[in-house]
Amino acid sequence: MEKQIYLDYQSAKPVDPRVVEAMLPYFTEKFGNASALHKVGDIATDALEESRAKIAELINADSDEILFTSGATEASNLAIIGYAMKNKNKGKHVVISEVDHISIHNIAKYLTQQGFEVSKVPVDQYGRIKLGKLERRLRDDTILVSIGYASNEIGTIQPIKEIGLLLAEKGIAFHSDAVAAEGLVPIDVKEKNINLMSLSSNDIYGPRGLGVLYMQKKFRINPIMMGGGQEKGIRSGTEDIPSIVGMATASEIMKKEMSSEIQKFTTWRSKIIDQILGEVPDSHLNGHKSERLASNAHIRFDGIEGESILLSFKDKNIAISTGSACTSKTLEPSHTLISTGLLHEEAHGSLQLTTGRFNTNEDIDAVIEAVPAIVERLRELSPIYASKKGAQ
Ligand code: PMP
After folding, report:
1. What is the mean pLDDT of residues 232-240?
2. For residue 285, what are the β-bridge partners?
3. Ligand 1 centre and the CA of 200: distance in Å?
4. Within 6 Å (CB) of ligand 1, which residues are found?
């Protein structure tokens, strides 16, 4: 494969070579099972507990509040279904947001099939939740609110502190899918009053197929998978020690490097947004201008299809996306963009550029330089754009 310029870090990140190095011994000489009582097992147990502590530190949790899962999807299933089932006698109403990740929407759908009622909080044109709108959806039988920390598509960061305070006052559990925000926003679960939170290892340059459910000490949930009783009986299955060590190493690195990375990404983001909006007529920023992830630029071009822009970039060996990788193979427009009030055709004409650890200034310049000509060429072929311009 020819060298690719990669600005699709939201969909997948390479594992940091330092992480790979830390993982390697745990595939071979340190291969033990953390449940075994001999010395080979002890090495695995020590690695497991040290890893819990390192990940806890990244989000200001205690190490016994970290439970390992196969990814964020499983962590969110466990948090939402596990909490709902445990507390169904207290109430059967759950609230999520319109812009949550597809996994949360599908968990909510499952809950409604199980006799729960789910309300969705709308967002404003920037994809942000207004506290009053959330408050109006809370009822006496609301047991849980799940709001994504930030959008994995348009990058808008939610007012998590205010939401956490409101829910703490009302005694309603607060779950947040923090996958899009991890490593890009300093997360402090105590300060934000988050009770349950989903994380994914790959989003901080760890291996894929591992995630974490942060579960505050006083919280109790039901397991959704029965087995050998690992992870406090909440998530059975032999722990994947190499991946767990990988995620812990990734957390340690992230803790040290996050603030300088955020600065670097913010500079790139401003450059990408300012130059593209400045040079390409009829282009618009999706999401919030300032309350957005440092790595995310999400830009809409009138009159063209995101899919065709993507293919033009592909020809130039530039990897970018038009939205969430989790739903990119469906023809449906992004539910997030539709929730911000865009029409279907507008939602289809967007480009998502997400930067990451291994990008260079040259990558950013090459992408910025490529955009105007690609958009212009596609517009020349676009009957929608031509008719729109003709009508003006
Ligand atoms: N939530 C968000 C916001 C995501 O972007 C993703 C996909 N990376 C997930 C959840 C699912 O994570 P996983 O693939 O680790 O299950």
Report:
1. 96
2. 299
3. 7
4. 71-73, 101, 103, 148, 152, 177, 179-180, 200, 211, 326
Give strand pairing partners of 352. Answer: 298, 321
Q: Is position 326 annotated as part of the catalytic site?
A: yes
Distance 43 CA to ligand 1 centre (A): 30
Confidence at residue 381, expressed as pLDDT on a 0 to 100 scale: 86
Domains observed in the chain: 5-11+258-391 (3.90.1150.10), 17-253 (3.40.640.10)
Question: 3-state DSSP: the chain helix, strand, coil percent, rounded to 5?
Answer: 45, 15, 40
- For the full predicted model, state whether its pTM sits above 0.70: yes
**Kindly report the CA angle at 346 between 304 and 314, in degrees rounded to 5?**
40
Give the model's pLDDT for residue 345.
80
List, in sequence order, every beta strand (DSSP E) within 74-223. 93-97, 117-121, 142-146, 173-177, 196-200, 211-215
* Six token digits for residue 34: 């953390």
Query: Token pair of 6, please?
Result: 């990669």
End-to-end Cα distance, the chain: 45
Kindly report the average pLDDT of the chain as a whole number: 95
Residue 64's CB is within 10 A of a number of other CB atoms, namely 13
- DSSP codes, 299-357: EEETT--HHHHHHHHHHTTEE-BSS-GGGTTS-SPPHHHHHTT--HHHHHTEEEEE--T
Q: Which two tokens stand for residue 42?
A: 């002890």
Structure tokens at 309: 């822009």
Contacts of 125 (CB under 8 A, 6+ apart): 340, 341
* Amino acid identity for residue 244 in this structure: I
User: Would the CA dihedral through 157, 284, 274, 353 be positive or negative?
Assistant: positive
Q: Are 60 and 161 in contact (CB under 8 A)?
A: no
Q: What are phi and psi of 6, to 5 degrees?
A: -110, 110
* Choice from 105, 154, 158, 200 to test ligand 1 binding pocket (greatest atom count within 8 A of CB): 200
Beta partners for residue 94, in sequence order? 118, 144
